[in-house]
Amino acid sequence: EQIEKGGYDHFMLKEIYEQPNAISDTYRGRMRVAEGIIKMAGIDDNLAKLLNAKRILIIACGTSWHAGLVAEYIFEELVRIPVEVEYASEFRYRNPVIHQDDVVIAISQSGETADTMAAIKLAKERGAFVFGVCNVVGSSISRETHAGAYTHAGPEIGVASTKAFTTQITVLSLIALKLAERKGTISNSDFHYYLQELERIPEKVKLALESNEHIKLIADTYKDAKNFLYLGRGYNFPVALEGALKLKEISYIHAEGYPAAEMKHGPIALIDEQMPVVVIATKKGHYDKVVSNIQEIKSRKGKIIGIVTEGDETVKGLADHVIEIPETIEFLTPLLTTIPLQLLSYHIAVMLDKNVDQPRNLAKSVTVE
Length: 369
Ligand code: AGP
Fold this sequence. Notes:
By secondary structure, this protein is α/β, with parallel strands linked by helices. It contains 15 helices and twelve strands. The strands form three sheets. Strands 4-3-5-6-7 form a five-stranded parallel β-sheet, sandwiched between helices. Helix 9 (about 165-185) packs antiparallel against helix 10 (about 190-210), helix 11 packs across helix 15 (about 335-350) and helix 12 runs parallel beside helix 15. The two termini are about 30 Å apart. Bound molecules: 2-deoxy-2-amino glucitol-6-phosphate. It catalyses: D-fructose 6-phosphate + L-glutamine = D-glucosamine 6-phosphate + L-glutamate. This is Glutamine--fructose-6-phosphate aminotransferase [isomerizing]. Catalyzes the first step in hexosamine metabolism, converting fructose-6P into glucosamine-6P using glutamine as a nitrogen source. It is an enzyme of class 2 (transferase). It is found in: Cytoplasm.
């Protein structure tokens, strides 16, 4: 097992550090930046079906559901097709309205999640076209779906999903870009620019990983907190949910993710000097609004950990700590903002002496209801 961990103390840490390669493995062979081409067999073979979709339904559980939420923002922005994201466990039992011209995208790292599988069967019975985004090659879900795209993240052993999340977002971004280019909902020059930016993400993830020692110090400061709040807006709202899930599952600290503006509708009552609040405040994406949310937290003495774009001075002046990430286009920011949140939860769990790779009560794939 030590050998399999490749010199890292835990699989989770190894998998966090594998993300630059995992992301490039995901787009390699699919994206030709110089020529401005995205080739994905599962998409190319079903292009008419996908382009004519009146609606996209995304079904998944857990972290994969969070990737689905990021995809909702990306698809609606780039492709202008309405998207709904559903927990597979809710979808399968609520007699959902499904039309023949709906496209269902099922996301699952393991490809074995029971609720996601049941939701796929239901969608198929009602005539929908179902596209799978799985990591495990030959898994049950990859076989049950009409078509699909693998994430090519390599084996994910840690129960806490890390590289599966970022590679799911990468695949879903490729799909959205391809459809947007074909539909003409983005300009040719934007399409080329977005491909270039996606190609730069692995290098930027490496830079984000360089904050590891700084994040360890922050983890040490807050490891004894009883609660954490995670806030983000737009593309980074799902990242806030994912950051909170990571902390909960491996450190057993209660954490909640919220869209930052929802804070004043309830959670703000929780904020006092004991409450660490992780705020994703990157330069693009409602930056000024997030800064005013930070001011609200500060005036209630909450402890602020800001995830900011490098060079940011405004949030630095307000927050107790900042963690910088490189700049990128807005819809790709989740691929970078997620990194420090993974490291923060990892270090807190290690410091609390928890079983990082196999947290209590959890299984890597949930094959029963
Ligand atoms: C994530 O850290 C979790 N362990 C869990 O939420 C997981 O994402 C969920 O069970 C879905 O699994 P899947 O992607 O294999 O379907």
